[in-house]
Amino acid sequence: MSAADDDLARLLAMDLHVGEDDWQPTPHGRFLVAVLARYNLVAEKDVLELGAGAANQTIVMVRQGARRVVATEIDEAALATTRANVERNCPGSDVVEYRVADWLATEGDFDVVVTNPPFAKSGKRNRRYFIDSLILDAHKRLRPGGDLVFIQSSMADIAKTLRRLAENGYHAGVLAETSGPFRDYYFEDEAFMAEIQHVPDGFQIVDGTYMEKLFVVRARLSG
Questions:
Q1: Residues 6 or more apart from 44 whose CB is under 8 A from it?
Q2: Is 81 part of a structural domain of the chain?
Q3: Domain range spanning residue 47?
Q4: Whole-angstrom Cα distance, residue 38 to residue 191?
C-alpha cells in the first residue's frame, strides 16, 4: 500500500453506531464519503451538510480541516446519532454545529454545500424533488464561487441535472462515478421500476444483474 493509500485509509477509518430507526450508511453515501476523502474540497472552508445521518461525511470533513461544519438533520433523534458519532471519532473537535432543519430551510452562507439527496425514497411525486430543489435554491446558502457537492443515481438522469445546473448559474461536472447493483427495495416499488424505464441510460442489465451508476457532482456557483 502506498503512503497516499495509507493516509486515505486512516481518513476513512471510523467507528459508527446507528440505531434501528436511523438511516443506515448506503452505497451512495459510502461512495460520496470516499470521493470527499480523495478530493479535499473543504479545508479552511465553511460547510453546510444537509442530512448528516451517521456522520461519516461529517467526520471526514472535520478531519480534512474544515473551518466550520453545520450538520443538519430532520429531527433531534437523527441529529443525536450524528453528534454521537462525530464526538466518538473526532474527540475534542469544536468545529461542528448541529441543527434540526428541513433541507435548505436554515440560515447562513457557506463555501460548500454537501449532501446525498433522497431520490428513490424521496416521498415526493417528483422523485427528483430534492435534486431540483438544490439546483434552484442552494444559491441562497452558497457564497459566490462556492461549491455544491452531491451524489445522484443514473436513474435520476445525470444529463438533466448537468443541464439544469448550467441553466441556473453553475459550472458543473462529474467529479467521480462508479456502478453497483440495485438495492432490494427498488424492485419492491413497481412505480419506480416503471419510471426508470424512460430515463436515458438510467440503468443497465449485466449478466442478469440490474446496475445503476452513481455520480458525484461538483457545481461551482458563478461569482
A1: 65, 66, 67
A2: yes
A3: 3-179+213-221
A4: 36
The answer to whether residue 203 sits within a structural domain is: no
Give the CATH number for residue 52.
3.40.50.150
The b-or-e profile of 90-114 (16+ CB within 10 A means b, else e) is beeeebbebbebebbebeeebbbbb
- pLDDT tens, residue by residue, 138-154: 999 999 999 999 999 99
- The answer to whether residues 55 and 71 touch, using CB atoms and an 8 Å cutoff, is yes
- Which of 56, 9, 64, 47 lies closest to 28 in space, CA to CA? 56
The band of 7, judged by pLDDT with boundaries at 50, 70 and 90, is confident
- Evaluate whether 56 touches 25 at the Cβ level (below 8 Å): yes
Identify the helix (H) or strand (E) that includes residue 131. helix 129-137
CB 54 within 8 Å of CB 18: yes
In the chain, the DSSP E strands lie at 46-50, 68-73, 96-100, 110-115, 142-153, 170-181, 204-206, 209-221
Q: Which three cell numbers stand for residue 164?
A: 439544469
185 lies in a domain? Answer: no
Does a structural domain hold residue 108? yes
